[in-house]
Amino acid sequence: MPDLDTLTPKDHAEEIAIFRGEIVGALTRQELDHGELRESLVALAATRYRPPKAHGTRQYSVSTLERWYYAYQKGGTAALRPERRSDAGRAQDLTEEQRKLLCDIRREHPSASVPVILRTLVGDGRLGKDAVSAATVRRLFTEHGLDRIPLRDGAGPKTRLRWEAERPGALWHGDVCYGPAIIVDGIKKPVRVHGLLDDASRFVIALEAHHTEREVDMLGLFVRAIRRHGLPDGLYLDNGSTYRGDNLSVACARMDVSLLHARPYDAPARGKMERFWRTLRDGCLDFLGTLSSLHDINVRLWAFLDEHYHKVPHASLMGRAPGVVYETAERAPDRFDEKLLRHALTVRVRRRVRRDSTLPMDGSDWELDQGFLAGRLVTVARCLVDGDEAPWIEHEGKTLTLRPVNPVGNAHRKRPPRRGPAAASAVPNNIVRFDPPTVLLDQAVGRKPNPEENTP
């Protein structure tokens, strides 16, 4: 059962929209001409994805990815919510056996053209004449990443290019660095430094030391950075399971921030963040000494940023300092809004109210004044922006407050009526006759009932 510490899509349609946005969202943040866009879509079509609630992986055609791309570019995540297919129920040109046969031949003979493959299969009787068109086969090969030109030119690794976001705020890198453990009250505790780095300026947006490496830690850091610097266009994280949960995914989708993950086992793709960690180690982390609190570590980290890193010329910035580049560069209009942030980080779950007007949540009991909700299922909401904020109930368009249960105080409280005055006045004044024992006695002695006596 989900709880208020887990941010999940409100329905399957939003889950599908977030999934599609994660595939094509990165492309919308790049400056691509038509040819480059086509190449990028073909590359995505060659990758297998696991849709939400699916048991297996699948690929998507270039045309489908292109449709998602333009829809996301125009309307954000909301435009990617699925609709009923216009070709539902239409017969497919190829059977599953034919698809497998054609793909196997292309894999074993990548230099063979589509006309040669079809001519050969028709000639030896494995395909009927005009059973399938060459265009259909080409689409099949594109969907499975079996295009002739890439296969013919070789399947080696791509050429790695030096790249950079077009402006500050376009892309933030997020990662964790392991620091030296500290002794707190005689107990050895780990140190995990969470950081956010702006790609275009190398400016450190946020840096904090924690004892844990959890998604909620990065989410809290992200929220504080947004309040100070505004919303980025994209957030680029490691591929680890820590950053693959629903909290970051759903929150970024609701704020139209593209959540990107590095490819597995591709360390150079995280080069900018790794280079900063090396600078931080050489100039600060390796010289912390015998500190005994996270506060002592954090103030030294922030001093290192303010007094050294942000002021020193950076080689990749042509000798300019990260602080100067970040402060003087032109940025896109600030899209930050506290209301949008609260909406993005509001969790909703279903809970049943107990008979004593209380309900459990996150290890604590909460109570409400509306006794008529006892025994009913209600929607409970909580905003993750402020961990100390109390949850609330959303019922029939109204917001009902919750408060921690105070059993001692309740012992001296006057019991409020379960229903309001309107409900009490609705009870009829007349009394309906209902006497099961007398009815049985009448049946036993043979007395006939008199309906007029039972009418009030």
Which descriptors apply to this entry?
456 residues, 4 domains, flat, alpha+beta, 16% strand, Nucleotidyltransferase, domain 5, 5-stranded mixed sheet
Write the layout of secondary structure elements.
Blueprint: H1 12-28, H2 34-45, H3 62-75, H4 96-108, H5 114-123, H6 134-143, H7 148-153, E1 171-184, E2 187-198, E3 204-210, H8 215-229, E4 234-237, H9 246-254, E5 258-261, H10 271-283, H11 294-309, H12 322-328, H13 338-344, E6 346-352, E7 358-361, E8 364-367, E9 377-383, E10 392-395, E11 398-401, E12 403-404, H14 407-410, H15 421-425, H16 436-445
Parallel strand pairs: 1-4, 4-5
Antiparallel strand pairs: 1-2, 2-3, 6-9, 7-8, 8-12, 9-10, 10-11
How much is the average pLDDT?
83
User: Based on the structure given, which CATH architecture of the largest domain is correct?
Assistant: 2-Layer Sandwich
When the domains are counted, the total is 4
How far from one another are the termini?
51 Å
